[in-house]
Amino acid sequence: MIDTAGRNIGVRLGPPGTEPLVTRVTRQMLLAAGTPVATDGIRIAPHIVLVVGERPAGPGVTATEAMAAVRSVHAGLELLDASGDAAATRVVIGGVERRPYEVDLSLEACVLSVNGVVVDSATGAAVHGHPGQALAFAADALGGLAPGTMVFTGGMTDAVPVSPGEQVAAEFTHLGNLVIGGARTLPQRNGGHSD
């Protein structure tokens, strides 16, 4: 990952048709996996996260070309503020790291549960057809992506609203599990990140 001391470290994609489709992720938005987070007034969506190893040039990059530039693949979560304030969004990236050739991303599944009850599930095909296509969108929109950029490729499911005290778990087939919830207060936005 890029150590930019609070600057942009990645991008995240919204559902097709949203404006803007691509938004920046800053270091202040990044929480370490396992950080206690209050679930009052947030919605959570699972992502497949691609970390860029080589710069995929844009515009005109294809999904295949974009995936050839990927260094590693991770599970991720997006925590959306109920008010819709993009600046209040937080993201989490999982510690399990796979190489892109080790996982069929279109078939990589995620089961999302709240307090142990399954509320939704999807595969990577739900992400713009393939997470690589989302990466190509981002490279096109931004004229390329720097090595180390984390790309949250888009919510695999609809963002699930969470009530205070509830715990959300995202279980991926090959990318590990992420769990959020159970605290009374949010951590400070400039803390709790991982490198």
Summarize the structure in words.
This protein has 195 residues and is mainly beta. It has a single domain (8-181), classed as Fumarylacetoacetase-like, C-terminal domain (Fumarylacetoacetate hydrolase, domain 2, Alpha-Beta Complex). It has helices at 63-68, 131-142; strands at residues 8-13, 22-26, 30-31, 42-52, 70-81, 90-93, 109-114, 117-123, 150-152, 160-162, 167-172, 177-181. Strands 1, 2, 3, 4, 5, 6, 9 and 10 form an eight-stranded mixed sheet that branches. The model is unreliable at 1-5 and 183-195 (pLDDT under 50).
> DSSP helix count?
2
What's the oligomerization state? single chain
Q: Tell me the name of the CATH class.
A: Alpha Beta
Structural class call reads mainly beta
* Mean pLDDT over the residues: 85
What's the total number of strands? 12
Give the uncertain stretches in residue-range form: 1-5, 183-195
Which overall shape is indicated by the principal axes computed on the Cα atoms?
globular
